[in-house]
């Protein structure tokens, strides 16, 4: 009976180790790839973005795409730059403004939520919701979603700016080919 339990336990252990190996969790590594000094290993791991440090130190991480390279994101932020932001999450694809009211009418304020459905510049790339809050003199407020021309105006403005940014980016990315010469044979000719 005692041997049977030991046998079953060893079979389970071997099965578990096989499972770990087949899932890619356990990967044998060569000692040549890693320096024997622990301080050098830590430095190498942090340099490659595989580690972290507590209490400061060199803060290096992985490679990140910056939101400034996305024309829709930049155009959206530029369009609503007069409003305070409550949240802007590039990886989540959402911008939420805080309540905003102009100086002339403090009883009425708006809040804008922009969701990015794709990175392509097209009319269905954005979902824009605008909420209005109307308050009376007793600070009794009513909130509702605005369904009107302002949604379309903001979307048009964002798409126009995004298209301009993309055009500028393409223009800046074109390589300079230098002047072309037209003329007769080896003598060259004029520029054009």
| Average pLDDT number | 76
Radius of gyration: 30 Å
CATH topology name of the largest domain, in short, is Alpha-D-Glucose-1,6-Bisphosphate, Chain A, domain 4
Give, in spatial order, the strands making up the sheet with the most strands: 1-2-3-4-5
Instruction: Give me the number of helical elements.
Output: 4
Number of domains: 2
Spans where pLDDT lies below 50 across 5 or more residues: 60-64, 181-192
The CATH class of the largest domain is identified as Alpha Beta
What's the CATH architecture name of the largest domain? 2-Layer Sandwich
Largest sheet: 5 strands, antiparallel
Order of helices and strands: HHHEEEEEHEE
Structural class: alpha+beta
Cα-to-Cα separation, first versus last residue: 96 Å
In brief:
The chain has 192 residues and is α+β, with helices and mostly antiparallel strands. The chain is 34% helix and 21% strand. Helix 3 packs across helix 4.
Structure description:
With 192 residues, the chain is an alpha+beta fold. It has two domains: 2-47, no CATH class; 67-173, Alpha-D-Glucose-1,6-Bisphosphate, Chain A, domain 4, CATH 3.30.530. Helix content is 34%, strand content 21%. The strands form two sheets. A five-stranded antiparallel beta sheet has the order 1-2-3-4-5, covered by helices on one side. It is elongated, with a radius of gyration of 30 Å. It starts with a helix and ends with a strand. Mean pLDDT is 76; it is low at 60-64 and 181-192.
């Amino acid at each position: 009976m005692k041997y049977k339990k030991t046998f079953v336990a060893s079979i389970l252990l071997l099965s578990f180790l096989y499972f770990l190996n087949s899932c890619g969790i356990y990967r044998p590594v060569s000692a040549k790839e890693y320096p024997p000094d622990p301080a050098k290993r830590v430095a190498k791991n942090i340099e490659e973005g595989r580690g972290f440090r507590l209490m400061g130190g060199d803060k290096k991480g992985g490679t990140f795409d910056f939101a400034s390279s996305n024309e829709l994101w930049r155009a959206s932020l530029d369009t609503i730059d007069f409003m305070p932001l409550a949240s802007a999450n590039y990886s989540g694809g959402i911008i939420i403004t805080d309540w905003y009211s102009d100086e002339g009418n403090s009883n009425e304020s708006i809040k804008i939520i922009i969701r990015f459905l794709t990175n392509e510049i097209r009319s269905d790339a954005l979902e824009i919701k605008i909420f209005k809050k109307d308050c009376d003199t007793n600070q009794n407020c009513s909130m509702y979603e605005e369904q009107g021309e302002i949604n379309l105006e903001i979307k048009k403005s964002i798409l126009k700016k995004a298209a301009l940014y993309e055009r500028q980016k393409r223009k800046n990315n074109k390589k300079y080919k230098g002047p072309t010469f037209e003329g007769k044979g080896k003598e060259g000719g004029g520029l054009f």
